Amino acid sequence: MESLRPSERLRQRLVDRVRGVFNDIEGGEQPVAISDEALFERDSPIRRVHADVVSMMIGGVRSLLLQMLHPHALQGVLDHSDFRNDMHGRLRRTARFIAHTTFAHRDEAEAAIARVNQIHMQVTGTLPDGTPYSATNPRTLAWVHVAEAASFLEAYLRYVRPAMPFAEQDEYFRQFAIIARKLGADPVPETKNDAERLLLEFRDELRGSPAARDVAQLVLGQKPPGTPPGVQSTLATAAVDLLPVYARQMLSLDKPGLTAIPARLAARSAGRTLRWAFRQ
Question: How many CB atoms within 10 Å of residue 31?
Fold first, then answer.
């Protein structure tokens, strides 16, 4: 690296730092290799959306906050996850699953899906009121999926491509639906309008419980190793800013207000910098 130009050394350092956040390099984990034989073609909507680091991080935080409003999804995390002691590990594993299913060779994508399906079979229990739950429940999986897909796309529209054509937004949902169905989700939206209708349909099933609010604070307060100071608070503020009003109210989260303005500016700047670093 000594022979590289200063700008190239800076670019490589940024790339290495980001890869260190999303991969357990010390444990031997390597970044997911991009394949031309993935489930989705290069430059297709899902690969464009999922390639943007900053908007995916913001969308990922938003999706977790939404997902925890569903009692079944929340209880599965409370009963079967070590998220309190390893929040970053949980988020990193989710990010790698998205990377495998979006960019890796289709055989690796199918293997990743099979592993998650196997894990879901072990996630069962009962809610505090005695209602049984299972991570294989198609409707619970549908909520997790639509919260995730809508959040990733909303963050991408806000921070990367506000003028993304509606046809491409619909194609994004159609492509992501392929993964959701392989995981057993039902119903699965195939257009943005379908997603908005499904989100509205779920409203009566959501609960702003003390446990959901506790998890939300843990998600927003995480400090991933290797992340520069201030970055996490920026991402957290941007994620809360993107939440629907009902979700903020259920989680007792204040609207960011004026603090959202510097967070938006910082997120846009970081996004441009990382797109330059990754030559996107």
Answer: 15
Query: In which band, very low, low, confident or very high, does the pLDDT at 225 lie, cut at 50, 70 and 90?
Result: low
In 3D space, the residue among 190, 170, 160 whose CA is nearest the CA of residue 275 turns out to be 160
CA 143 to mean position of chain CA atoms: 13
Distance CA 145, CA 132 (A): 21
pLDDT at 8: 81
Average confidence (pLDDT) over 143-162: 98
Q: Which residues pair with 134 in a beta bridge?
A: 124
Torsion from C-alpha of 220, 104, 148, 77, nearest 10 degrees: -60
Say yes or no to pLDDT of 279 above 90: no
C-alpha span between 121 and 80 (Å, rounded): 12
State which amino acid sits at residue 174: R
Give the residue from 21, 278, 53 showing the smallest Cα distance to 160: 53
Total count of residues recorded for the chain: 280
- What pLDDT does 280 receive? 72
What is the per-residue pLDDT for 229? 65
Helix (H, G, I), strand (E, B) or coil at 132: strand
Instruction: Give 40's strand partners.
Output: none
Phi/psi for 186 (5° steps) reads -165, 125
Assess contact for 83 and 92: CB atoms under 8 A.
no
All residues at 6 or more sequence positions from 236 whose CB lies less than 8 Å from its CB, including other chains? 61, 219, 220, 221
- Summarised one tens digit per residue, pLDDT across range 79-127 is 998 877 777 677 888 999 999 999 999 999 999 999 999 999 999 999 9
Give the span between the Cα atoms of 82 and 7, in whole angstroms.
40
Question: How would residue 3 be classed by pLDDT, with cut points 50, 70 and 90?
Answer: low
